[in-house]
Amino acid sequence: MNPGGYGGGGPPPGFGQPPQGQPGYGQQPQQPQYGQQPQYGQQPQYGQQQPQYGQPPGQPQYGQPAQPPYGQPGYGPPPGAPSSPYAPPAYGQPPPGMPGAGYSTGAGETRLMYEGTGGELFGKMFVGLLLTGLTLGIYMPWFICKMLEYFASKTVAQTPAGPMRFSFRGQGGALFGKAFVGMLLTMITFGIYAPWFVVNMLKWGYENSSAQSASGRTFQLQFTGQGGQLFVKYLINGLLTGITFYIYTPWAICDIRRYMTANTQIVENGQPIGTMSFEGQGGALFGKFLLGGFLTIITFFIYLFWFEVDLKKFYYENTRIQIGGRTYSVSFNGTGGENFGLQIVNMLLAQLTFGIYSFWGITNILKWECEKTVIRG
Questions:
Q1: CA of 279: how far to CAs of 217, 266, 352, in Å?
Q2: Which residues make beta-bridge pairs with 327?
Q3: How confident is the model at residue 291 (pLDDT cuts 50, 70, 90)?
Q4: Which residues lie closer than 8 Å to 121 by C-beta, 6 or more apart?
Q5: What angle, rounded to 10 degrees, do the helices at 227-243 and 249-262 form?
């Protein structure tokens, strides 16, 4: 049988054809092509939807949703019309009105990469340690700044909006002055000034660190805490830790970490655009300390590598970043076995090379830690 519309010869009488003598000025109505809507007044082919009486052609086929007029609720705008402002953004793109490139927009994940090499680290640390020794330790602040600058320049965050690079511009002279005054005041106050010293150093470090997105936007961290507040935290947590014979230590760690993250802001051009928080609880950390410490002892410290990874996961996974109304979580995907393998190889090769391989070992650890760190929206 050759249905109408597939070749020569008219359609034989049968299903879908009007009976003989049907009005129509004596002409046989033309059968529509496969997949096309029959003309007004014609019968549809088998499997096609019967149009309602009085409706024009162009109605959707059976099982297809009707396209509402533009501006009416439905499945979206018609072809060629501008997308709705409430439509979801394309993959990897920030929604309208949100900050642009530079951090994950929730459509993907952000991963860290470390691009340094063991040879570079060996050269910088060799020179820095040599100068520190020759100057009886005076060069140490300059050495620290050089290393922070190097580590920052070799760290890249691969975000859905493009790579973000880090930089550190602190100078050794400024660090020398802050460190000298801070340590002096800490000594003459028998450690009481230590919280103020910590806050000053943290603020200085954040002020001299920045991250630049692929679009050229620059972001920084800003610490808003005060030395007096941190002193109270240290005092209370120290007392509770002492009177409980160190049982309170996990709660103290979580409390201090919660305070530090709560007072850390993400700023752009001096304007806050995000905050951080820590949700870890002392009870959960106490359990990890108890189990990890027990397994470390009975395995003659072999489990220490797994314990280290377990603690890192706890700290990371309980850290939240809030930017532009979105919340981002941090996770660490490394395993204790990977940590064990890296550390054992590094220790063995460092001993065989009289410590020279230590710089390559440090580089391998940094690369592993960065590659296993993920930020998701």
A1: 29, 18, 44
A2: 322
A3: very high
A4: 150, 359, 360, 362, 363
A5: 170
